[in-house]
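pasting for the record
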Amino acid sequence: MKVIILGSGTSTGVPRIGGENGLDWGDCDPNEPKNRRTRASIIIESEEGARLLVDTSTDLRQQFIANNIHNIDAVFWTHDHADHAHGIDDLRPLRYGRAGPIPGYAADETVRRLRQRFGYVFAGQYGYHTLVSLDTLERVRMASGIGIGFCQMPHGPAQSTAFRFDCDGKTIGYATDFSQITDEMVNLFYGVDVMVTDCLRRDPHPTHANLDMALELISVTRAKRGVLIHLDKSMDYAAISALVPDHVSVGYDGLTMVA
């Protein structure tokens, strides 16, 4: 089993719009390709070729093309914030040729909000097919041979869903957009082979993990390897790589980690 980091950036991406010549790189070296970050989403892929998408980022079309992703078996959402959900229309070409909608899953409140905002995706409209058959996470424990575990995480005043994926004795944890480490998160992720974690910046943030919190999550869960994602323009790839332990990688768009 492997995880493909489709997008490793925060909600505004890197570079951010603005600054000199319209591009704000912050502390990131613009000559380092790994500092060019799209919004966060991942693919979980089994050895048999099953693919699960987590989040439909606003850069999803670009990410699918860059990573040659032209089919998925299911889609999961961590929460409904724009950078994680508003690329949902880019699922349309993946619906072509399918006998039915793509299975989709999220926590109860996320399901409610997605249905309210994107009703046409889940019910079809004007002769267009339904793209996704949306259901709550309580209705799924396995998707295309991959085991699904989950819990809710604090995301400032909101919540985000943490996921654990299990297949053939290997495990991958995914925790993006959290602001506190809970016992439930530690139990869910304990002993994973790869822990992909939110890591917005070095300084504390009210709704996201900073570098210290991300490293703490990797440590307390006894994860064999860690990957830092959801990085902002203060997190230069080379500079942060020099700060983290050997078993921790600074994520970048297109990074593939095998569990």
